[in-house]
Amino acid sequence: MNSFSAVHGASCSPCTPLSPKPQQLSPTVSNGRPVARRAPPRRLPPSFSVSPRRVPMGGGEGGGSGSGWQQEQQEPAMSGDGGEDLAAFVALHGAALRASCVPARYWESLRRKLRGEVFDAGDYFGIMQVEEVDEEEEGDEDMEEELKKKPNPGNEPCFKVIVTNENGLQASNPDSIFLIDHAWTYRVEHARQQLLHVPGLLHRMANLMRIDFHGEIPDEGSIEQVLQEMWKYNQTYQLSQGTAEEKVPVWYVMDEFGSRIQHSDQPSFATAPLFYMPQQIAYTVLWPLRDLETGEEVTRDYAYGERDHLIRKCVLLPWVSAGVLDVNCFTPEPSDEHYQAILAENKEKLPIAINPPVYDKDKVFKVFTDIQQVLNSLTHPRFVFTDNEREADILYNFSHFKDYRKLSEERPEVMLNQFPCESLLTVKDCLASISRRAGGPDGPRWLPRTFNLQTELPQFICYFQQRERRGEDNHWICKPWNLARSLDTHITNSLNNIIRHRESSPKVVCKYIENPVLFHREEVGMVKFDIRYVVLLRSIKPLKLYIYDVFWLRFSNRAFSLDDLDDYEKHFTVMNYAPGVTLKQVHCEEFIPMFEKQYPEYPWTTVQANIFKAFAELFEVASAKPAPLGICDYPSSRAIYAIDLMLKWDTSRDGAEMTRQVGGGWRVKQQDCEEIPLHCCIFILSEALD
Predict the structure, then answer these.
(1) Is there a contact between 588 and 2 (Cβ–Cβ < 8 Å)?
(2) Which pTM was predicted?
(3) In this structure, which of 460, 483, 570, 650 has its CB flanked by the most CB atoms within 10 Å?
C-alpha cells in the first residue's frame, strides 16, 4: 500500500515562492572589438529580427538600472498638437526613460526619431581604426604607459567611434540623442539554430565579431566561435509583463555602429535599450554625458552602475583581462540584516505566537481555494467549499500569503497551506544559503558548490579559475532565482557567458553534474533522469515531515554526453511543457527492478534511505533559526512539496568511484498539481551507498 513515511527530527516548510519581481526593461552593457567599416550609413544594415525583436507586450517597460548617471529630470512642456503627441509618448515610455536617466530635454526629439525611424548617427559620428603599435615602439615605456591609460589598451587593431561633425556635439542640444538598431535579437536557447538557418546571419555576426568566415554554408566551427564571442557583444532586456515564457530575457547584438562603441571608466555617452510600443520594436538609445569636440571618442561604461572596485573588475573580465582574482572562495552565510531585508521585500508580516488549534473530531471544514484541481478533486465529506474567505476554516491559496500577523490575531484557528518565511526554501539563492549551514565551511556533502551571482561573483570567479588551473571539470548550470521548468536555465563552461548572464536577471550558478547516474533506455541509450518525491510538512515544532513512497520519474530523450550544452533533450528532463517533445515516463514500481538490474550493487531501499536522510538534514537547518533567519513556526500551517532529484556518481581525488550523490532541484507543488514557478538549484547528495 502506498503511504507517507514520517521523517522525525527534521522539518520542511510550505514553499510559497516569492512573487517574481516585476522587472522593467533592464539593459546590459556589452561590447567587443568590432569589424572594419567606414562611417555608418544613414540607415544601417537590416536587422535580423529572428526571435523576438518584435515582442508582443501586455504593458509598458521600464528602463535600465538607473546606473548612476544622476541627471536632473525636468519634464518637457507639452502644448499644442505636438504636445499631445509627446504626452502620449511619455505616458507609454516615460517610466522607461526615467529609469534609464534619459534627460527629459531629449524626449521630444527621441519621439520624432522613433516615429520616423530616423537613424542620423552618420551625420555626427564616424569610425576610426586604431593602428597597431610598431615593434620598434614597444620598448618605449612612455608610449606603453600612455596606451594603458586609454580606454582600450592593447596592441591589436581596434575600431572606435569618434565625433566627426565639424561643430562637435553639445549635450544641451535637444537633438543630441540617437537611435542604434539591433543586428540580431534572440533568446539564448535559439541562438545556434538561428545562426545555422537564418540566411546571412552567421556571415554578419562573424564579420562584426572579427571571426574568419568566408563560406556560403554555415559550419559548426564558425558557429561555435560566434557563440563564444557573442558574450562580448551581447546586451539584454526583459519584458516586465506577460507569461513566464515571455519574460525570459531577450539578448541582442547592436548593429555595426553600436558594437564599435568602446568601454571607458569615464564614458562620454550613455546607452539604454528602449522598447518602442507603437512599432513593437526595441532600439538602443545613445546620448552624450557632456559636450564633445570634433575628433573626441564616443565611449560608454560596460559596467555602469557598479561602484565597487572589485565587482567592476569582475564584470569587465570579458573585455579586460585581469588575471587570477586574489580573493577567498569561501561563501559565508549572509548577515541577519540580509534575511530581514528579504522579509521586508516580500512584505510578509510574521504571526504572533498562538497555541495549536484543537478541532472537533466530526468538524466539517470550510475550504477557500483559488486552485481549480482542488475544487475538482476534494470530495471527502468533511470538507465543503466556500466562496467567502472570511468564513473559511482552511485557506488553500496558490498566491503568496503575506499577512500572518493579522490572521494569527483575528483567526488563529484558520489553517493554511503556507508557512511564514518559506521563501528560504523556495527561492534558489536563499536555499543555497541556508543549506550551507550544514556541513562546515564548504557546506554539506549533498550541496555542490553554488554561488549567488549578485553577491558572490568574485568568489565564483576565483573558484572557477582555480578549477581551470587544476584542469578540473568546469561545467556550470546558471539558473534564475525564481523560475521553474528550466526557463532561462543554461549550461556552460564559459566564464564570460556566466558573468554576462548576471546582467539579465538575478541568478545562481551551480556546479553541473558532469557524471550523473544514467538509465538505459532501449530506444535511446544511457540518458539522464530525475526523480520527484512528494513530502508533507506537518509542523515545525516539533518537526514532522512525511514523505510519500510513490515517486515520479522523467527522462532525457537523447543519450547523455558532456557536449552540445544547448541540446535541451540531452541535458534536461523537463519535457512536459515543450510542444511536440516526447515525455518518457515509467511508474516507480516498474523503475525499481529496472534500476536494480542495471545497478545490482545498489539496492533501491539503500538509495532511498539516503535520500530521506538528506531531506531531513536540509529541513533541520532550514528551521533551526528563528524567523526570518529560518522557517517560522506557525501551528496552523501545513505544506506539501515536490522535490526533484538526480543521482550522481561521486569520485575520490584519484578518480575511484566512492559514493552516489543525490542532486535535487526543488519545486513546490500544490495538491492540485499546479506547479508554482520555482526551480531551485540545490543538489542533494547522499552519503556513501556501498
Answers:
(1) no
(2) 0.82
(3) 460
